[in-house]
Amino acid sequence: MDAAPPDDSARHATHRTIEAVWRIESPKLIARLARMLRDVGQAEDLAQDALVAALEHWPRDGVPDNPGAWLMQTAKRRGIDRIRHRDLVDDRHARYGETLEPAAMPAPDDADRLDDDIGDDLLRLVFTACHPVLSTEAQVALTLRMLGGLTTAEIARAFLQPEPTVAQRIVRAKKTLASKQVGFEAPRREDLADRLAAVLGVVYLVFNEGYAATAGEDWMRPALCQDAMRLGRVLAGLLPAEPEVHGLVALMEIQASRIPARTQPDGTPILLLHQNRARWDRLLIGHGLAALDRAHRLGGTDGVYVLQADIAACHARAARPEDTDWARIAALYARLGEVAPSPVIDLNRAVAVSIADGPAVALPLVDALAADGALAGYHPLPAVRGDLLSRLGRHAEAAAAFREAASLTRNAREQAQLETRAAECALKAT
Prior knowledge:
This protein is an all-alpha fold. The chain is 70% helix and 1% strand.
């Protein structure tokens, strides 16, 4: 007698399992296939084929004991079929046929052999997805697709972009890697620092878009933060001796610890000094501080991400806002500005100075940044200026600054908050 088809609840549970397995296994699957085929685009296509096969078979047959091995075996077999049917007389068929001989495939329960060298393959995939021949936008999309296990639709939703735009970006990125004959390899040691900086920058860009969305109705997208932290932890496992990797992990985990306290129930943002610190995730803070300690022990004291994590740690260690060591934070920002000069860092330092030494000391620093013009159109600049002016009792000027900031942001939540502050200042000015 045939087995009864699964009911809707069982099918739904299986689909959720497949989604979870895919997020975990897809980077390893794509990395291994890319090493075999020397083509990231083909590897990603075959991995997607294996996912479709799982969606067809697992609801009916059950989830296999070793789902990762099942996906790998399926992808390899489909790769052989594609190669054989593509061109039987092509010389590459012989090479790939030897490499992907069915008899050499691992059995579904052979987890040990599947994991051989997977760390090296993942590292190659990270650096391939973030290769400098691609634009930053393409690097982000490809990284989330291949290392984050996100679908094109999920990436489009995360960055509030049309799905066809993201899909085209991913397709173009894979074609660019193929046309430029980008090798599936990690950079040479002498090139590692520059390439690693780009990789870390992409991961942190993903995190920041989740932590403080640049546009849309929501101030945060925590799922995107989770994806970035997962990528950071993968990198930390692959490059355990690189202090900046651990610094980035520390920075993201300490910042993410505040997520439960950053909004009111209706989604209205709560600024740092007004957050209920009892709602901060102490487990994440502990993990972040441990990663920061490891970065220090590795000699990364002056790293860009380590310095930022040191700043975040100052907040995490303060039980109350008034316990925060703002003088140290200002000093850390000053050092960060020396290591990686940026007007944004200078603005953040001015905020720390305003709390450590008062708004009157900080306002000239902010006015100088405004006069320089490097931050023109950057809404935090007039927002900070409005806050300083308000604290100095110059409410009419503060209201104008907050209105300017509200006009510049594309995030609806932040815009509403800035407009509220402008209205409050205008009322005080009357």
